[in-house]
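Hey,
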Amino acid sequence: MLNHGLPAALEALADRSPVPAVVDCDAPGPLPENVQLAAYFVASEALANVAKYAHATHASVRLTRSDGVAVVQVADDGVGGADESAGSGLRGLEDRVEALGGRLFVTSPAGQGTVVTAELPVG
């Protein structure tokens, strides 16, 4: 999964996504393995949700790093209205991110798409 690094793994997720997705990585330097895994799973679950529920035509995955924090963000142009309390997927992501001392944010106004953002401390 991460044999060729997180950027390549994110590109592979985007390539397999039934909803066209682009990846933008600007995370200089190596990230700790646990951060890479968490970022990968956030992107994977978020893209799966886009395909299942969003009715989107486009998605994006962005990975950045600054001030000791890696940020992975998945956005779509779908119907919005994601409810963190309605299923186990987003709650599971939140648990995984918080276990590393990070934070997960979901912004999903009805009719305006969804943005899932995970902030992961790099140490």
